[in-house]
Amino acid sequence: MSSTTQFPSLPGLNAFLRPLSVSDTKSCTTVESAFPEHERCSEEKFIYRLNQTPELCLGLFIKAKDNERLIGHVIANRTSFKTATDGSMLMPESWRSLAPHDVSLCEGEIIGNDPAGGTVAIHSVAISPEYQGKGVGRALVKAYVQYIREANVVADRIVLIAHGHLIGFYEAAGFHNFGPSPCQFAGGGWFDMVILLDPN
């Protein structure tokens, strides 16, 4: 599934969205370099997430002639918690040897993707630096929420953690601020952002 998308801030560009796959790993790693190094998703973690939940990972591409270029992505997995957790952001060391619906536990919490989880936990929203500050990110997040709804993904909410200065950004895309997050990823200081999905 891919869909041409109108992004007012990308005039004249052939922009489209499609679910990501493991073949997009290198491109995702390049886009992710927009983050400070201690907040980036590693290439190995991209391989893990794109293997586990490709249907929850969406890319924004621009196409010129026969070439397509990833300029933004939303990367997610599943959790049984109602907000993002440190455990959901981790990657089981032995994930390659796990059966598709097996999970890895640490201190009673599932590490990484929980196939039975009813929450979509976003772990990366990234836009290539040259397209930042133009409304592309907000449009991508809104398109992602619509995509999850229209793809009939079985989930009751979408969650993420955000820096304080990005609360307004996510609220404009429909998320609600649930206050400070206990997550200690990259040193902590995050806020839980949640959007409830329609029950139908």
From TrEMBL:
Gene3D superfamilies, sorted: 3.40.630.30
Gene Ontology molecular function, alphabetical: aralkylamine N-acetyltransferase activity
Domain N-acetyltransferase: 15-198
A Pfam family hit: Acetyltransf_1
GO CC field: cytoplasm
Keyword Transferase set for record: yes
InterPro entries: Acyl_CoA_acyltransferase (IPR016181), GNAT_dom (IPR000182), SNAT-like (IPR051635)
Presence of keyword Thylakoid: no
Signal peptide: none
Keywords, ordered alphabetically: Acyltransferase, Transferase
Name used for this protein in its record: N-acetyltransferase domain-containing protein
